[in-house]
Amino acid sequence: MVVALAIVAVIPLANFIATSNSRTLFLSRSNDADWFAAMAESPLQTGDIANLRELAVRYQELYDTPVFVVDVDSRVVATSVSGVDVKEEDIATALHSTLAGRLPPEPPALWPWAAGEMIVSRPVVNNGSVLGAAVLRVPTDKARDQVQRGLLLLLGGLLISIGAIIIGIVRPITRWVLRPLQDLDNATHQITRGALDTRVSTDGRAPELRRLGDSFNSMALSLHQARQREREFVADASHQLRTPLTSARIHIEGLSRLSPTARFALSDIDRLGRIVQRLSRLAGSDRPSADAEGNEEPLDLAQAVKERLVGWKAVYSADDLELIIGEMVPGGVAPELEVDDILDVLLDNASKYGAPPVEVSVTRDGTEVVLSVRDHGLGLGSRDLKKVGERFWRSAHHREMPGTGLGLAIVRSEAARVGGRVVARPPIGGGLVIEVRVPLIDDYDA
């Protein structure tokens, strides 16, 4: 709308520039034509036109404008150039009015995209009788160039005006309209960072934006309530599990002196207890202090793996699967690393999705201790290897088999909790290797 109004306003100005330049040129050359008409009066009466021809030639040399004089019968009697055709449309029209004793109308406006000469004629009169006419064929190139420069300046002014209008009016309006969307974008980023209590203001907004803001606030409230219910559930579940676990441990402790199997069950009870503690920490309660964790001794990863493999060798043997215990290099790691959980997930996956033999080893690689579990199954493609550890992800080859897709995600979370990482790669000879790499504690004394 603003641009349309500016264009409508500039059209009359452009026409004024073209008309003004045309009129200025026409008036200046009309005075010259009047002078020639006065000088041609006597020669047309006497027939002596030599001086008149010389005047026409000198005028063209000086002003670069051809000029000629005709008698009352439109015959050329004096000219500065040869080959004048009085039957040309523009010349014939001008002579018809001039020889009839009337002044021709002003020529049309000079526009840069048009071409042609301006014909200026004046009658030669003696005692009210028309003896002939003086005609100037005026070049218009310079005048059209002036009009073009004027139009360019006008166009530049128009663009500057439109820009000023946009900056002064449209831009503030645009910013006012987009501000709610910017607020919504900022709030979305806050939500993704975990600030689920973030809300956006809907006051003074357009109806559509107000509805969008209300929908966003409703979504954020639902997320916040869901997270709160999740934490409450985890806290209640972990609290309710403590008492039966403690009671079960007391009873099994009494049996552990008599049965090795009971001792293995006691180890699982302790593992369940640690799981409950992690659930409590996840819910934001019972978080152990940094000092308490720092006072614990480093954990020998190789020794912890060997102890857990005692039970898994029996499981694999019962299923006629071969479990190979490879190199076991001692290495101290963070004591809070849940080795049993990690090894259970890796060996369970290898038995379900891979193929025997399954080999377990613990090695050192620079500043890392590496727990490796290798199987000899089909392995994974390069795209699938990049997705290992994502929550609920399962390979297309294994979707028909039982599972949740959370096992390796838990392993990755456990490794990350102590500053470690999980690497999946295809080994030489086929199959799949899952490596759990955790930082080596330098002061560990094997």
From TrEMBL:
It is found in: Cell membrane. It comes from the Bacteria. Residues 175-228 form the HAMP domain. It catalyses: ATP + protein L-histidine = ADP + protein N-phospho-L-histidine. Its EC number is 2.7.13.3. Gene3D superfamilies: 1.10.287.130, 6.10.340.10, Histidine kinase-like ATPase, C-terminal domain. GO terms for molecular function: kinase activity. Its main location: membrane. The keyword Coiled coil does not apply. It holds the Pfam family HisKA. Coiled coil: none annotated. It is an enzyme of class 2 (transferase). It is a multi-pass membrane protein. Keywords: ATP-binding, Cell membrane, Hydrolase, Kinase, Magnesium, Manganese, Membrane, Nucleotide-binding, Phosphoprotein, Protein phosphatase, Stress response, Transferase, Transmembrane, Transmembrane helix, Two-component regulatory system, Virulence. Its cofactor is Mg(2+); Mn(2+). Residues 236-442 form the Histidine kinase domain. SMART domains: HAMP, HATPase_c, HisKA. The chain crosses the membrane at residues 150-170. This is Signal transduction histidine-protein kinase/phosphatase MprB. It comes from Kribbella pratensis. The lineage of its organism: Bacteria, Bacillati, Actinomycetota, Actinomycetes, Propionibacteriales.
